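Lab channel / #folding
Pinned by the channel admin:
"Please post every new chain as: sequence first, then the structure tokens as a reply. Keep commentary short and put observations after the output so the thread stays searchable."

First post following the new format, from NK:
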Amino acid sequence: MPVSSRFLDTDRLKILPNTAGCYSADEAIRAARLAREVGLSDWVKIEVIGDRATLYPDIQATVEATRVLVRDGFTVLPYTSDDIVFAKRLIDAGAAAVMPLGAPIGTGIGLSNETSLRMMRELITEVPLIVDAGLGTASDAAKAMELGFDAVLLNTAIAGAQDPVLMASAMRDGVTAGRKAFLAGRMPLRLYASASSPMEGISA
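Reply from TO:
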């Protein structure tokens, strides 16, 4: 029995192997297959790093690994850039979701590329979109959800907080608030002031 099965309810939760640390499609494919062999999930987060300084993904290798693993029966969730063209190629390769970065991994900057993410949300409707990497606090998660993303993926923002349990709770609240705001639909933006109380019918 895998160690995780002794601590987590695997009937209710899926263990999500991650190919973090892989620098080629072959490495990522091998890591995913090994994870499945030892009894973890056939769901896998594919992460193929292309640059050691920024940890930006190697998109071509990510597409290649996604295509192979989908053929192998995996449910593939690829970490990618905010490039809409490659996002569509990942979908064509069979990705079950697309997970663009909000900022470089582990930086906590938040959404450094909001315009690109907005376009991606408008142009991709076939699969869920999940902001992966770069979020630092609950307002970042709320903003991602306000843009219409389906979820956020978090690690460092919680693990690196002074109080991880409290930050996890804050992130949950931020996700909930952001989703509600997206569904509610924000008021239109205006350049000039607009009175919230009507003036019609009021005599001087």
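NK: Helices lie at 3-7, 25-37, 59-71, 84-92, 114-123, 138-146, 156-159, 164-184.
TO: also worth noting, The longest helix spans residues 164-184.
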